Structures are given as C-alpha cells and as structure tokens.
Amino acid sequence: MRKSTSLLFLNIEQMLTLRSSTTGPRRGAQLNELGIIRDGAVLCAGGKIVSVGTTKQALRDPWYRKHKKTIHEVDCSGMVVLPGFVDSHTHPVFAGPRLIDFEERITGATYAEIAEAGGGIRSSLEGVRKTSKSVLTRKVVAAFNEMAAQGTTTVEAKSGYGLSFDSEMKSLEVIRESARQWPGTVVATLLGAHVVPSEFKQKPDEYVTEVCEKMIPQAARRKLAQFVDVFCDKGAFTAEASEKIFAAARKHGLSVRAHMGQLSETKLQPFLKFHPASLDHMDHVSSEDIAHLAKSDTVATFVPGANYFLGHSYPDARRFIAAGVPVALATDYNPGSSPTPSMPFILSLACTQMKMSPAEAIVAGTTNGAWALGLGGAKGSMEPGKDADLAAFRVNDYRELAYWFAANYCDFTVLNGTMLKGSAVNGAR
Ligand code: NIG
Ligand code: FE
After folding, report:
1. Alpha-carbon distance 362 to 359, whole Å?
2. Nearest CA to ligand 1 atom 12
3. Domain range list for the chain
4. If you count Cβ atoms within 10 Å of the first and of the last residue's Cβ in the chain, which end, N or C, has fewer?
5. Topology of domain 85-372, CATH
6. Per CATH, the architecture of 2-83+381-421 is what?
7. CA-to-CA distance for 196 and 135, rounded, in angstroms?
C-alpha cells in the first residue's frame, strides 16, 4: 500500500475521464460518453484529483515543475485508467457461504422454494448472530480488498443477516469498523427488513414495528447508516410494509433504497414520493413504472450477478435506457444470490446478457453508481476537486474491461489517494 501526498499517473494509453457537462445520473445517449483522453495524465494530491489532461500538458504544468521532487510518478503505458468502480449494492456482513442452497438449486429447487423451506437468507442468520465483531470485520475487510483488487474504490455495504435489533446494530458496527480499516469509501445501509426472521413468523407486523421503531431510530441516532433498504417481494416484505419502513426512515433523516422486482412485480410509483436514491434488481417492472422512473432521479440498479448465479433471466436494460431511466450496475455481493466481488464480471454480464454497450456498462458501474449513493458530486468521474479514486487496467482498449471474463487485469487502484496493487499479471497479453 502506498500513501503518498502527490501522485502523477502518466502515459495512460486511454484515460476515461467520464467528465460530463450535465449534472445528475446519466441517461440515454449520455451513457455512452466516456470523455477519453489518449496519452493522458492525472495528478492527485491530498486524496483529491488536482488536474486531468494529456501527459504533455502535465509535464509542462508549473505546479508539477516546482514540486517534481516530491511527486511520485507512475508510468501507465499500455493501461486504461478510469474512475474507480462504485459498487452500489453489496451485502458483505455474513459468516460463510451457503453451499446447501447452491447444491439444491443445481438439483432443481428455486430460490423462492429454498427460502420457504427455511434455507435462503434465514440460514445466514445464525452465523452472523454468533460470530464476533472482530471475526466479521476481518471477513468484510477481506471482501473490500478483493473488490479493490478488481477496480472497486467505493462500496455500499448493507446489514441484513442479523435480523434482530442487537445483531443488526452489530452488523452496522462491523461495517463502520471495516470502513475505518480500508482506504476506500464505504456507504452503510440498514437492511433490517431483509426477510421476517422465524421468531416473528406468526407476527410479521410486529417485526416491521421493530424495524421502524427500534432499528431505524437507533441507526440514525448513532449515525450507523446513511440508507435504509427493504427487500420488497413475495416471501419478504409487502408493498404496504415497505412503505411504512420508507416513511420511518425519512422521518429519522435517513435516505432510502430498495430491492424491487427481483422475483415478482411491485408497483413502483407509490415509492417514488420517498425519492429513493436507487431501486435495485428490477427484473419485473411495468412500462408505466419505467415511464415514471424516467421522470425521476431514482437510479435503476441492475445486479446481473444474481441473475447469473440463480439462473434467472436478465432484466431488459435496453427498455430502461430507451425510456431515459438512469441505470447503474453493482455486484450484489452476498452468500445467497451473488457471491462475486468482481465489477468487471458484472460489466461482462451486462454486455453479453443485457446488451449494454461496454461504454454504457462502464458509466453504469462508475458515475451512475456514485449517483445511486448520493455521491455524484465527489465520485464517478476524473475531474479536478473530486476524490482521487482510480482503477488502472493492463489493457489497451476500454472495451477489454468487459470483454475478458473470469480474468483480472486490474494493475492497481487508488482509493482516496492511497494506491493498492491489483492482481494483474504483468505482460499477460
Ligand atoms: O439482493 N434479494 C434479496 N437479497 C439478496 C439475496 C440475499 C441472500 O439470498 O442471501 C439479493 O439478491
Ligand atoms: Fe441485494
């Protein structure tokens, strides 16, 4: 790990600045604008981006000439450099993999059937409830480092495998401690409403009250979460309960986001009045709701890793993009439906399975991910004043980011000015 106050990355083959003349999440044709500079250079100091341009311009810059001796230079010949990925949907606080579910699906059981039979999310609770904070923190930091090794510099992290007041607060404390130990940026989300735990099976309304009247107020008071999420679907929470949870979150000053339309359709319009930063999964959405979304700033976040792993069909990204809905991409890293830390793999799925162009997938995994977390002003593009979050890949062309799969060509990442080595093999191709 290198922590240097000033870093100059130069000779970048393709530098994807993702700068834009507009503000807010990108829609339609804007999703293809990468703002490419060839033979680019970017200067970072004090954890921020100072200047962005060509290598020639950087070397002529008077500030560079004056401070040359104190600047650490990194030669990026043969590399593509872009803003670090913003993975805006992950569930990293869990104790172990769910191998029984995995094998049952292979022999024909569906995600919903496994959940009904007591597997699924509920089978992750015991592990989280009985594992210590320090052990969980070690696992979460390890996951963040794996994400960073593949180009991710900002991660949204949800609780949601404790599902009791104490273990949800413990999960949020684990996220806070992991954020302290990792140089990247972490946005914490309370997902106390992931499913109804078995203790409340006969009284789900009481569990909703527990979320609204205990978990949300405490998470807000202790500033343990910025967002409240709810899994609104068959077998999880009804639209009515989800609205109650959104209202409680807003009442306590927290922003909202939700898992929507993964297994079945829910009418989205009633939720838009709460201004969710993002609605995620979005496999089942009506044309009317797509039109409503297009008029809002709510981002539709696709998590195709879950579709891949569960064998579900993919959301129709082209329909959303054509209607003008801002779309983002995230891993949904979790033990049940998407055990991958890799944003490049998600980009690959978006291109091959959802027919997004490589440029659209990159914008969705950076700029729009940042907007989906309310961080569009600080992250998701390379512009002076923004956070020094970069990902460098040992490839010559940006399209290769989504082209190679189950490979990792990330050479290094820069997280708030701290450089971490990726796991690319030098000269691999
Ligand atoms: O985003 N759908 C709800 N939550 C997760 C899955 C969680 C799990 O199965 O453990 C998701 O896919
Ligand atoms: Fe999820």
Report:
1. 5
2. 337
3. 2-83+381-421, 85-372
4. N
5. TIM Barrel (3.20.20)
6. Roll (2.30)
7. 25
Q: What is the DSSP string of 274-323?
A: T--SEEEE-SS--HHHHHHHHTSS-EEEE-HHHHHHHTPPPP-HHHHHHH
* CA 309 to chain CA centroid, nearest Å: 17
| Ligand in nearest proximity to the CA of 90 | 2
Residue listed under structure tokens 């990026």:
76
From the CA of 338, give the closest atom in ligand 1. Answer: 12
Helix or strand holding residue 257 (H, E): strand 255-260
Q: Residue 425 C-alpha to ligand 2 middle, in angstroms?
A: 31
Residuewise pLDDT in 10s, the chain (429 residues): 655 589 999 999 999 999 988 899 999 999 999 999 999 999 999 999 999 999 999 999 998 999 999 999 999 999 999 999 999 999 999 999 999 999 999 999 999 999 999 899 999 999 999 999 999 999 999 999 999 999 999 999 999 999 999 999 999 999 999 999 999 999 999 999 999 999 999 999 999 999 999 999 999 999 999 999 999 999 999 999 999 999 999 999 999 999 999 999 999 999 999 999 999 999 999 999 999 999 999 999 999 999 999 999 999 999 999 999 999 999 999 999 999 999 999 999 999 999 999 999 999 999 999 999 999 999 999 999 999 999 999 999 999 999 999 999 999 999 999 999 876 544 444
Say which ligand is closest to the CA of 158. Answer: 2
Q: What pTM did the predictor assign?
A: 0.97
Q: Which residue, chain included where needed, has tokens 């044709």?
A: 29
Q: Report residues whose beta carbon is within 6 angstroms of any ligand 1 atom.
A: 91, 120-121, 124, 231, 259, 262, 306, 332, 334-337
